[in-house]
Amino acid sequence: MADAPALPDFNDPIARHARVDQPLLKADMTVEEALAAIRRQGLGERIIYFYAVDEHDRLAGVLPTRRLLTASPEMTLRELMVTRVVAIPVTATVLDACEFFVLYKFFAFPVVDADRHIIGIVDISLFTAEMLEGEEAAAPPIAAQADEIFQALGVRLSQLRGASAWRVFRYRFPWLLATIFGGTMCALLAGAFEATLASSVVIAFFLTMVLGLNESVSMQTMSVTIQALRSQAVTGSWFGAALQRELRSAALLGAGCGTLVALIVLVWRHNMTAALAIGGSIGLSLVTACLFGLGIPSLLHSLKLDPKIAAGPVTLAITDFVALIFYFGIASLVL
Q: Of 219, 224, 278, 287, nearest to 253 (Cα)?
């Protein structure tokens, strides 16, 4: 058996390993026209999915081969294709692409530039050459080995991500300084409102809840944002649409949590002023928590920093500080 080729350098740009031998189909084609175009252009080394582009040659959808071959010739590709396509940005490395395969468990991904133009295709064979070395020639096809392949790829990814304790410390500790700095600033801020805390004990009772709610909301938004950034470059249009969506969600979350906590304060302490102050500050601070959960990972991603490591400490530190400003500021004005 011939030696299998070694795995690529995981720090290489993924664009260097993307194949360009796959025909791209126009989304407005019929199935018959698409099959004719495939015959004219020929097939690449390995075809798993076909990709459709719009009139501006931007990625518009993906067509599983089986769906294309079994559809009626008169149907258009727009009727068949899946429009929500996970794509690897051209700025990604081979290691980043490895994470895509482990996370989504697809057999191929298009590699796109900032304008969603396809520059090539990367399939699972880029990573499986070494891991499948030693398999018998009569081994089942990739589709039948899917679980084993992705499990092996996940193990390899964890090994590549592994590092010495000192290296991990040097990489992660600077970002944890943001938490230490943020906690210190929060302590100083609480000291500045010492008189408010002394005059209204109920404010101190709900301090932990306020911080917990804000951290939970910011972490939820941040997790969704980081997930989206795996397949999406940070552009003005994308950020604007995401910001509008998060503002709507944040308003609902703030109103719901603020109202519920206000009712708890009112029933427990029979203090309408304190209930309005605590509930109102929660409502406002949760809106900012959502915005920080979206904005900070997006900023770090655009600066080519790892949002999975850096965004958490930075987002939580800023979220806590702003939440306390709202909380103590409103309480000092009305109580």
A: 287
Shared domain check, 200 and 303: yes
pLDDT digits (tens, 9 = 90+) for 171-198: 677 777 888 888 888 889 888 888 887 8
- The answer to whether 327 and 204 have CB atoms below 8 angstroms apart is no
What is the pLDDT at residue 144? 46
pTM, rounded to two decimals: 0.54
Q: Which residue has the tokens 């600077």?
A: 174
Helix residue spans in the chain (DSSP H)? 31-41, 65-70, 77-80, 94-104, 125-131, 146-161, 165-192, 194-199, 201-205, 207-229, 236-269, 272-302, 307-334
Number of structural domains (the chain) is 2
Q: What are phi and psi of 2, to 5 degrees?
A: -70, 150
Alpha carbon distance 87, 232 (integer Å): 8
Which of 141, 161, 181 is the C-terminal boundary of a domain?
161
Tokens of 73: 């010739």
